[in-house]
Amino acid sequence: MFTVTLNSAPGTAALDAALIEALRNAWGGGDARWLAVAEAAEFAVPVAPDTFETARADLDAQGIDVNIQPSAGRRKRMLLADMDSTMIEQECIDELADLAGVGAHVAAITARAMNGEIDFEAALIERVALLAGMDAGVIDRVLAERISYMPGGAALVATIKAAGGHAALVSGGFTAFTQAVAAQLGFDEHRANTLLVAEGRLTGDVGRPILGRAAKVTALHEITARLGITPADVMAVGDGANDLGMLGLAGAGVALHAKPVVAAQCALRVNHGDLTALLYLQGYAQGDFAA
Description:
The protein is an alpha/beta fold.
C-alpha cells in the first residue's frame, strides 16, 4: 500500500473536501483522513497512480503539495536537517557578507553552490575569505538581528523527540550558528564548519576538513550506527545541492522549498507547506504535535 499526503501552506485553507474526494476517486483510494482542517489530509492507494506527476504539477500551481510513499515504515526514528534556508530562513554566510559590504557578491556565489553549479568546498573557501578582518562579534549581531526560524521547525523537532526520536542538525554553515539554532529548537546534536578567529577577528578561513555533501552522508552513517538504527529510519530535509547525498540515502529525503535541481532528484517535495509538512508525511495529525 501507498499513502498519498496533501498539504498547503498554513492559513491558506487551500485544501477542500471536494478536491480530496475527486483525487481519491480517480486513484481508487481509501477513505480520506484529515490531518489538519483545510491544510493537510491523506489517503491510502493500492498502487502508485500513473497520473501522479501530472496531478502534482497541477496541484503545485494551486499552492498544494502532494506526495506519495510506501505506507509501511513512514514514521521515522530520526530527523537529519540542514540549517540554512531549511531550519532558518536565511543563509548565514550571506548575512555576514552583507554586513561586510560584499553581500550581493557572496549571495551570488551561494546561489550557484546551492544549485550545484560550482563546487561547494571551493565556494565556501572563496566566500569566507571575503570576511577576513571582521570583528567576531558580528556573529552575535547576525543571530540577534537577522536570523528567523522556518515556521513549523520547533513543532517538528519537539514532536519527533516526544515520540522517542533523535534530531540532528548537520550544516555546511558554521558551528557558531548551529550551536545557537540547535539549542533554540531542541536538537540533540549539531555538526558544521568552524569559522576561524584570531585576536577577536575572523581570519578569512574555515577549519578543515570542510563539512559538505560527503560529510553530511558520513554524519548520517555515524549517527545511525551509534543509535543502532539504519538510514531507512531517517527523515532528512534540505534545500541545496550539498544536501542531495543525505536526502538520497535517508529512508525519506524531503526537498523543502528547494532549488529546482534538488527538487527534481527527490521523490518527496514540499514547496508550499512549512516544516510541519514533514510531520504530516509521517502520519501525524495536528493534534499530535508536541508543544
